[in-house]
Amino acid sequence: MNFKATIIILDFLKAPQVLENMESLLEQKVDFNFKNIIIDNSCNKKNADILKQLEKYKNIKIKINKKNSGYPKAHNDVKNEIDGDYILIVNPDILWKKKNIFAKLINYMDNNQDIGILGPKQINRSGKVEMTIRAFPKIYLQVARRTFLRYLPILKSKVKYDEMQHLDYNKIQDVDWLQSSCVVIRKKLWDKVNGLCEDYFLFMSDVEICFQAWENNYRVVYFSKTEVCADGKRSSAGGFNQFFKSGVLRQHLKDSIKYRVKHFFDKNPRKKI
Q: 109-124: per-residue pLDDT in tens?
């Protein structure tokens, strides 16, 4: 069978949401074949058993990892099983409420060969647009966003720009980077940059691949003409007080420092195009 795209969902203790996600995804009306890879990093038998219910569907592969291999490595470990022109990375909580979403995303990529990464509008459970667009990060702003520093006059406008609060989320537009909660990545780009960067464990690999897209003369585009639903909960959410309680937030800081060190002398590659 010839596949147009491969969908990858990486799960960590959200198996019921993955089932709901896949059931809505399999109802998408498309004129091409796609395959699905579900990766479980939970190391939890109950979670794995729930995911295995999806084996009754064709073109779905379930991969249960014996240890949490991290976000980028888990995706790269299935590189030999990816087929088609596109890779769709999807978070477990995504829901496909309209049946033409997937087709619209792929058609737009087909018709715009200079796009390397495309992400749809996301609507959370309360009906608000999720802010999935960001500027290439600066550590001092990432810290400021989570503390009182965000309200200081000298930083307030910079934080707003970092969070892209000024953007019109109803407009198709080029952006620095997109959160990888739901993105289409051109397979040619994926192969060129060797997938997601394993310098990071949990965060920043989505920033990195968008950086590399621009470096390799591919555009990163926010596509507002179709939308998916998300639960609106971000694993990296939380203020400074949560830092000492949350291993996830501490990992976010570690990965952010790695990114900043790696790109310390680099200019914004988007400005080249």
A: 999 999 999 999 999 9
